[in-house]
Amino acid sequence: MEQKVWETIRKYNMLTEGEKVLVGVSGGADSCALLHCLCMLRKVMGLTVYACHVHHGLRGAEADRDEVFTAQLCEQLQVPLFVLHKDVGAEAKRRKIGTEQCGREIRYAFFEEKAAALGAKIATAHTASDNTETVLFHLTRGSGITGLCGIPPCRGNIIRPLIEVTRNEIEAYCLEQQLTYVTDSTNLTKDYSRNRIRWDVVPVLKELNPSLESAVSGLSQRMRETEAYLSQAAEAALIQAKVSGGYAAAVLQTLPEAVFAAAVRKLCAELALIPEAKHLALLHKIVYNGGAVEIGGGVTAVMSQGIFRIYRQTLPQDEVISGWQGQQALTVLNKKIDLLYVNIEEFHNGEKNHQFLLANSLDYDTIPITSCFRARRSGDQLTLWRRNVTKSVKKLLIECKVPREQRDSIVLLADGTQVLWLEGIGVGQAYAVTEATKSVLVIRPQNV
Known about the structure:
The chain has 16 helices and 22 strands. By secondary structure, it is an alpha+beta fold. The protein folds into three domains: 2-218, Rossmann fold, CATH 3.40.50.620; 244-312, no CATH class; 320-447, Phenylalanyl-trna Synthetase, Chain B, domain 3 (Phenylalanyl-tRNA Synthetase, Chain B, domain 3, 3-Layer(bba) Sandwich), CATH 3.50.40.
């Protein structure tokens, strides 16, 4: 098994000579075998090996036993051990998530914290058998390519040196090395879906194919290659389709459905959301026919005026910035607003060099002291410079085809309902720079 682990490390470039590695150790066969095997490679590769263990506070005396056992093993192998005690049950209730998910989040957060402090990679003891169970679990849920990719050999600074080793090979290694381990009693029950797959489904499939784990590992590798290709194609498509306010539907309509789905998943990932298959089908439909789809988590996709976009709906913000005079920068509605104060000579010089835009420049001496930066409100009006026409802000935004979901994030400078400046539209007639202007305020909005 040591040879197979060594080959896996080299195959996926998991570790190089002289690196530090932090091993997650539960006390079970898999993690004990991983720790022991890396210690055997310690001299060969010049590795510095550490271990970490999490006491979840869920299994009483059995969990206490696991911690004591892990500490003894690390002492025997001369490996520094870090231990975290956490009441996962209480924390799961607080976070309103399942106990299993909560435990996983706590473990990885602890691993990441310690690894960052040590400058080490994280090694977990996922095996080829774990990968098989994961793929089968995803398959029963109707997963797509991503689910069939299974457990990746590497993810960021996390490595899995046992990912091509089966559970039977690990147990044989423990027997050969006279390596003892503890058993988590919950793994022996059929209370969890994964355990039912392990004890009821996998044995039947191995009767059909004794090399099941190897076959599934091969499938996962091919799916990862396919997903990588689709991801690259989706990235290129999004770059090609990008326009102001979203993505050109005409470009998206030319994409194969698989590439379109990958592109949508990328956009949703930016909003920390994973779309379901039913959503992907609906989104593909509205790209051709127009309309909107609620994806969930406050996220909506819309296609109108030939532009497709996905956004998280936010409530109108009631943020008001007054007393701003003299400040160099503000943050309003999640946008940084730079304020430049220049005399008329500096302004004209900058205008020649295209440094200042008239649409964002006001006669500073005409601005009321009571004016403030804020979002739009009902009744707001703007008399446009050089057009001498007064319109409501709502009507102006509609005429300028500003998407509905973006209108409440537009910044304006107003005194009461009188708008002096409207982001993306321009300056009010009474506040524009003229021949009589002596001081100029230049407003430069930027997305934070």
